[in-house]
Amino acid sequence: MTEIPCVAVVGAGLIGTSVALALRERGTEVLLSDRDPATLALAIELGAGIALPDEPGEPVDVAVLAVPPAAVGRTLLEAQKRGLARFYTDVASVKARPVLDAMDLGCDLRGYVPGHPLAGRERSGPTAARADLFLGRPWALCPTEASGEEAVETVAALVRACGAEVHRVDPVEHDQAVALVSHGPHVVAAAVAARLENAPQVALDLAGQGVRDVTRIAASDPGLWVDILTANAVPVAEVLDAVAGDLALAAAMLRASSTARSDVAEVITQKVGDLLSRGNTGRARIPGKHGGRPPRYAHVQVVIPDSPGELARIFEAAGHAGVNIEDVSIEHSPGLPVGVAELSVRPEAAETLTAALRDRGWSVPVLS
Ligand SMILES: NC(=O)C1=CN([C@@H]2O[C@H](COP(=O)(O)OP(=O)(O)OC[C@H]3O[C@@H](n4cnc5c(N)ncnc54)[C@H](O)[C@@H]3O)[C@@H](O)[C@H]2O)C=CC1
Ligand SMILES: O=C(O)C(=O)Cc1ccc(O)cc1
């Protein structure tokens, strides 16, 4: 496997810091930069690497440009001007536009291998970064005709070092594909969530897991996403037109069914059923078990009363049991006297933690 001893990451946000943390775990030296000094300081504090010196030095093996799509071309040009790296890649969610920008700006394309990890989160910045973000996830590499073979091999080795799987795709084909599986769904999630903006409190109180699942990505940074969507405008518009067509038909059928004779209403609702069945088929085609992310942590769920200090007591109990809590999230429905804390721990510690919490009287459901 190609060795990558030293990498530079330009843009120390969610993706840049996650790449840096993943590579640090493998012993790679990482030099970080960000135009925002506070972001850079935070990424360094999190152990993602050290600051890239202002003065140019020896080129690193690979520079990862983890900036918004519209900034990729210029960032590549500046990095190449200072001789930052032997090879360059980016992580932008669109590929054709940054490649065109790089060409227009006169960048050297031989060492540049455009890339895109299909893994992310609805949060931005280094504090949301995770070393395991890319484990088992697809990562598109879209070499241009100018990309050299050594550049492609070295960037592919970096992707694998992050735990991801390389998929070589043409940039235009990539953009059409992600319009369907990422960018279109993002706008649909935002449109569903936007319905809740002025929703009555009673509706919000009744919100269950379904609406949370459908709208999770609607919590993402609008500024970044406007950049992504406008850089992939036509393919995304085509997906949205198709979704809008299905929705318009469903709405028309439902409205007609409410006033139609029962035999006609049955035919009409069948049309709605057809859409739901097509949805079942499409959903089943998404790679699941085999294409999914292998679990790194076990999750222990604890039912917690909504009272001050309860979470602190759980952490204390975990500490007494010698278990380190790697992550925690809390699911809480307003108005209910209890919530559920999900504690992420190393798999070998899950049993100890479960026993310790049950001993102290907490309810720890068995997870299937
Ligand atoms: N958010 C996600 O889930 C995913 C994002 N991406 C792509 O990764 C890239 C970065 O996105 P995130 O990490 O989510 O955003 P982020 O907002 O967390 O991080 C971007 C960082 O780049 C810095 N930056 C912006 N322009 C810069 C410049 N010219 N020079 C140096 N630093 C600069 C910002 O200060 C910020 O810290 C984008 O191109 C995005 O399309 C790819 C996969 C998933
Ligand atoms: O949060 C999620 O599940 C995502 O799917 C995030 C995401 C956002 C942008 C990308 O280009 C790729 C992945």
From TrEMBL:
This is Prephenate dehydrogenase. Its EC number is 1.3.1.12. It catalyses: prephenate + NAD(+) = 3-(4-hydroxyphenyl)pyruvate + CO2 + NADH. Keywords: Amino-acid biosynthesis, Aromatic amino acid biosynthesis, NAD, Oxidoreductase, Tyrosine biosynthesis. Belongs to the prephenate/arogenate dehydrogenase family. Residues 299-368 form the ACT domain. The lineage of its organism: Bacteria, Bacillati, Actinomycetota, Actinomycetes, Streptosporangiales. Gene3D superfamilies: 3.30.70.260, 6-phosphogluconate dehydrogenase C-terminal like domain, NAD(P)-binding Rossmann-like Domain. The keyword Cell cycle does not apply. InterPro entries: 6-PGluconate_DH-like_C_sf, ACT-like_dom_sf, ACT_dom, NAD(P)-bd_dom_sf, PDH_C, PDH_N, Preph/Arog_dehydrog, Prephen_DH. Pathway: Amino-acid biosynthesis; L-tyrosine biosynthesis; (4-hydroxyphenyl)pyruvate from prephenate (NAD(+) route): step 1/1. It comes from Actinocorallia aurantiaca. Residues 5-294 form the Prephenate/arogenate dehydrogenase domain.
